[in-house]
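Why do we care about 3D structure at all? Because function follows from shape, and shape follows, mostly, from sequence. That is the central idea of this module. The next example makes it concrete: a single protein chain, its amino acid sequence, and then its structure expressed as tokens.
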Amino acid sequence: MKYATFFSVIIGVGLCVFAVNEAKGNIWFDVGPTYRGGMKAETSGSSYSQALPRTQSVRYEEREFDYSHGASGRSFSNGYVLPDSGTYDFLSPTFGYTWNWGYEQSGQYDPVQRTLTLNYSHARDVASLYTVTPTVMQDRNATFSETFDGNGVEFRVGCPLMEAETFQIDFCVGLSGIWDAKAQMSGSTFSEHVVEGNYTIYRSNTGTLTYDVSGITMPAAPHAGASGGPVIPYGPSSSTASRSQESTVLRSQREWTNRNFIDMSIQSDIHSLWIGSQLGAQVGKSVTLSVTPRVSANYVDVDVSRHETFTRSYSDGSSASLGSWSDRGSEGELIFGAGVTGGVNIEFSNGLFAGAWGGYEWLEDEVSVDVGPNTVDVDASGYVAGAVAGVRFGG
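And the structure:
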């Protein structure tokens, strides 16, 4: 392992010191609960949902517009020309003509040209239009972060290296474990609002038909034809037609939101072996203050579970699943660390003592776990604290 040689030498020296002091009976040990806080977990990467295609779809279906204005008759905004019983009868003397006609205003008749003008204007659907229009509301990387903590137990053993009347330096070794330290991170990286529309496109068709009425004595306006009345040609002598601007009418519309959600569960176990020198000063008959700089070997084991959902939520409250993905990954590394703690001990009779301590432990590296499209980095550096109860032999 990376620091195996370094720690082997240090522990070997420590064991020699312990062996010398054990012969004298000068040794102490303590044990107690420990806490580590301020550890950090961060994620990077993207999501499965963001890798899916997102398109804007438009379908346009043209339907033919009828410009004939009706083969079986014509109704106008200011009159009409409809067939009579002889209009289509080849044997009738009025074949191709009709008495079933009328007009409203005298200005429609041109006495010079001997023509009658009739106008029409109507609208009908000419096409159907279907659209799906997405608007991206959020599209970002999965940059979540969380600070977490954990609890465990620490065992320490030490022996004096140097002693004075109120001052003492001890060599000490500690073994600690933090188990089941958990972090929970969740959030969304992508969402889009989608509008689906069904439309009908209308186009106005306007025109003028001119009829030759030179063969009759023009009745005064307004005129409504009757059987036996003057007949005019059923077909116009000329016509003009034009289109106005199209108009679009919404027939139906639906709206929904597509959104992903990522949930990550992180569990870390930290096993540490450390060595250090405890500098202690007696400040009262039974109270000792101490500072302990130390170096450590830390095995950090990280397990990550990732779950992502992609859901469509409609405006009416219903929803549908568009996808779901689950991944899991784990990684363990041996990492060098260093730290410093300060503590206070209260001495009791028969070598018994109890105390509390706190400090900070720095780890030089992070543990990275690849899980699905993301990478989770865990930094196990953090604030440490604990309480101890122990016993001191010899003296």
